[in-house]
Design a protein that fits this description.
mainly alpha; rod-shaped; 85 residues
Amino acid sequence: MKGSRLGVIAFLAVMTNGSSLLGMGQGSAGSVARSIECNHSIAHNIQTAKALGLLVGNSPLKERAGFLGPFQVDCSALGMCSVLA
């Protein structure tokens, strides 16, 4: 029983990596994983490029913050609106 399990594991190891051991790396498990990763990366980059293409020509939104700059004064807080106007 132990010999047959070892034989099955050896067969599966040779089947998945045998082509790379023989010099034909296109059929190995590692090359399949690399090609899947490469296809995913290409698809992600295409999707990002399309999303950025939609933003070209549109100016970014400028939000009006409640913070006044260092040289701006809120005259209503000082009670001097008539003097500063």
